[in-house]
Amino acid sequence: MAKTPVFIGLDCEDTFNHESDDALLRLCQIHSEVGVPLNLFTAGQKARFLRLNARDDVIAAMREHDICYHGNFWFEYPEPALVYGVKYDWDTALAKALSIEMPGLNEVAEVTGQFPTACVSHECNHSPATTHAMRLGGVRAVNGGFGDDMPHNGWVMDMLFAGRAKRTVGYQGSFAMAYDPLHPERVKPTVDPEAELREFQEAFDRQLAKGHDHVSIVGHPSCWVCAEYWGLYDCDLPFRIGAEFGPVGPFPQDRQWRQAVMRTPADVEAHYQWTRRAAQWLASRNDVEVLSMKQYLDRHDEPVGQWLTLAQVKDMARRLLQDFDAVRVADTTVSVADALFLLATLGEHMMLYNKLAQRLQVRRTLGPVKAVPEMTEPVTLTRANCLIAARAVYAYTMAHGRTPHAIRAHGVNAGPAQVLMALAQAFSRDELPEQVTVEPVAGLPKCAEFPIFQNATASSIAAPACYDTSAMNLQCKLQSWSYRPLVKNA
Hints:
With 490 residues, the protein is α/β, with parallel strands linked by helices. The chain is 39% helix and 13% strand.
């Protein structure tokens, strides 16, 4: 019987409560002793906090698990992705993301001694441009998504998406107590380990019964020692911005953060008690396997620089004409963006050498980042127009690393879908025809109907007031062009 992968992710981000360092140490030790790996989504601020506090004991314990990335900043942003992701065009937003996140990514690697395997964006700091920046920085997997789930885990933007949406079980139990500033003397009662374990087991089994291809278990180390989400009363403050997403000003240097309300020692120990038993229970099951993101990535990753024969590319073209979607080719899968670039490369090679290339290398390509035109009338392209369109796609993709949202071939306007279908018609034949006609076709592939693309959202409890997510939602939806299934799910 196939075992369902389970990922336990801890978001390590608390830089105000020193007790959270002790919680992170204890949790790493518990899971090492039980033999259950953790995925430690570590913020740059947290890594710097551990180094400043000389917590080499915590860092040593973290190294026994998989280090992942949770953004450079948590509270005091130079500019949150929710702002720059909709305020600027794609290239400017990407440059912002690289300038903010690459130092944090490399600092987490330096402090922990591991380069992060995966990333997950937190409440305030996600955008498609930020996700792509992670890929450019060398991160290969995402334990998140665009706000909803996919039928199966797969590749989007050349990153392995194993999302949390609708697949999550809480690992924190009933840690929370509603803090009231008028009654700070209130103390959270000690939890019942038996009841906490039972509730976790029941929640896990309900999630497992849904039949998803993985389950995510999520927690925050702070919640093992704090009786509230730390920073609850401060989490909206990074968005002190002007009208229409004006400048984000620096925080005053005398900003005072209130420490979270602590759990009692007895309550903390009771929480660790049921956590250990939960980890042991997961390890004992024969229907699930608890994995690190690195283990899962290694299982599904593919060799870089794969080549296809001309016959395989022609067969790909014929199948695209039947089904406008990602397709299995040889020992890999290609997104429609990948397929368009393959056919464009074939046209470019013909223009340069007056013959078709016998072998073509797969290049993983982003989808467009602007709205694609919806063509309601048939589009006819001559042989020359097909080759001109192929050259345009090839040149644009090589220059920008993504699919163009619109193409013009000597007076003929078309979207990438029309050009893809035109080139698929032309190159699926033994000889290029004098002209091809493309009937009206949807601007997005069939997989765009997946909830992850259809219901994409940039919402956040800490978003700016009256935040408009439409621009970012569209960018997420357009990345259906870059979706391809795992080879095992193709």
